[in-house]
Write a structure and sequence with these properties.
Two copies of one chain form a homodimer. Chain A has about 210 residues and is an all-alpha fold. Chain A has helices spanning about 10-30, 35-40, 45-55, 55-80, 85-100, 105-115, 125-145, 155-170, 170-180, 195-210. In chain A, helix 1 (about 10-30) packs across helix 4 (about 55-80) and helix 3 (about 45-55) crosses helix 4. The termini of chain A are far apart. Chains A and B meet through helix 6, helix 7, helix 8, helix 9 and helix 10 of A and helix 6, helix 7, helix 8, helix 9 and helix 10 of B. The structure holds a DNA duplex (30 and 30 nucleotides).
Chain lengths: ~210, ~210
DNA sequence: TATAATCAACTAAATAGTTAATTAGTCAGG
DNA sequence: CCTGACTAATTAACTATTTAGTTGATTATA
């Protein structure tokens, strides 16, 4: 019953702005997103954006912080259900894959951010990213101590996992388009679903971590 | 001696514009690169850019086509020195790694392009990218036929290789910064050089392609 | 009635692209 | 070896549009 069909509500307005901003920033990037277009999309006056988020950069920070928090929470929650490093690793990869697929703005935003070395990266976002990597890194380290993983360079493996997943998501339209061409014949996995891909990555990462004798 | 200290030369001017454009596009992205800034950087009048490249998009196409051609030529040239799939695969990864490291604009431009699903991707660039992947894919296929590779999904493996290498290059400054922090302790490979990384990736990719029994 | 939320209308700067004039190089004919 | 005409390269100054951000008034609500 509460909240008689939303009239004036700061929280609702803020959320509206953020969700529209997620859409635009992830599709067009930071620079190509105009505050006029954003205000039209969310149906509020442009001044509201500056009223709540001070300026464009402030809005971007709010967007990134929300998006990173979402994925971090998802992964941490799933992680707590497991205790063996190998299960944790699988859970990490699988959860990230699922999330990235159902929230495709995440890979788009992350890759954009990483491709210009955090030119506009706010400190908070930087911390979140390090925390996420720290968890991954820790899983591998504990696995090595227990003897179930060998020869890991966490940073490289991390990029193998999230780099690949992010690219598989963001390039979906391109891969579809490529599969329809017949001048160069390649299998671009246009019909693979995310579960297959995640399973394959999990299998291969585990194979990499086995003793290579 | 020739060319008495370069005065009026279309080719020189075009090259000047392109190399400045590579710098700006790769650092700031397409949208954030202004033609005024570009003209200042290359020391030519802004109208020259439009005289030679018609418009901003035309310049971008010229830039991307040159960059993609460079890497393609490098890889093809090295590829021809080998005949066994395993050597070809190593050569592909190693050459890409070396090139990406010495021409860091390539990873930046590529990741930006892939992160928005080719929103501004010209047809020619799309072809080049498919050709490069086709070579990689073909190496794996021939390897499988000969029995030296097993269980490959070329698209995923391709992104594992170039995704990881591109990210290792573009995130260098971020990884350096992270390694100086001590609130969250992680090894970000801040001191790894590209050869180590390439060797590790080669080793791991080969391990993945071994029979998993 | 006080305050928080909303808006229309504005500003100043930056932007991609244009135009018309001006150079500099080339090359044929004297 | 000039000269002048032709062309290609270059320029300054301009336009029209878009941009982030502001302001001061106006609502709604508690």
């Amino acid at each position: 019953m509460s909240k008689k069909i939303q009239k004036r509500d700061a929280e609702v307005s803020k959320a509206l702005i953020i969700s529209s901003a997620i859409e635009l920033f992830s599709q067009k990037g930071y620079a190509s997103t105009s505050m006029d277009e954003l205000s039209k999309l969310c149906g509020l006056n442009k001044a509201m954006v500056f009223y709540y988020f001070k300026n464009k950069k402030g809005l971007y920070e709010a967007v990134m912080s929300q998006v990173l928090n979402e994925i971090q929470k998802s992964i941490l929650k799933e992680n707590q259900k497991h205790s063996k490093p190998i299960d944790e690793l699988e859970s990490f990869i699988y959860t990230y894959a699922k999330f990235a697929c159902s929230h495709p703005y995440l890979p788009a935003l992350l890759l954009k951010e990483l491709s210009d070395s955090g030119a506009i990266m706010p400190e908070k976002l930087f911390s979140s990213m390090r925390e996420l990597f720290a968890l991954f890194s820790d899983i591998l380290k504990r696995g090595e101590e227990k003897g179930c993983f060998q020869d890991s360079i966490p940073m490289v493996l991390y990029f193998m996992v999230i780099g690949t997943l992010n690219l598989m998501v963001t390039t979906k339209p391109l891969r579809d388009k490529a599969s329809q061409k017949d001048d160069i014949v390649v299998d671009t996995c246009a019909n693979c679903d995310i579960d297959e891909i995640a399973d394959y990555i999990i299998k291969k990462i585990e194979q990499m971590l086995k003793d290579n004798k």
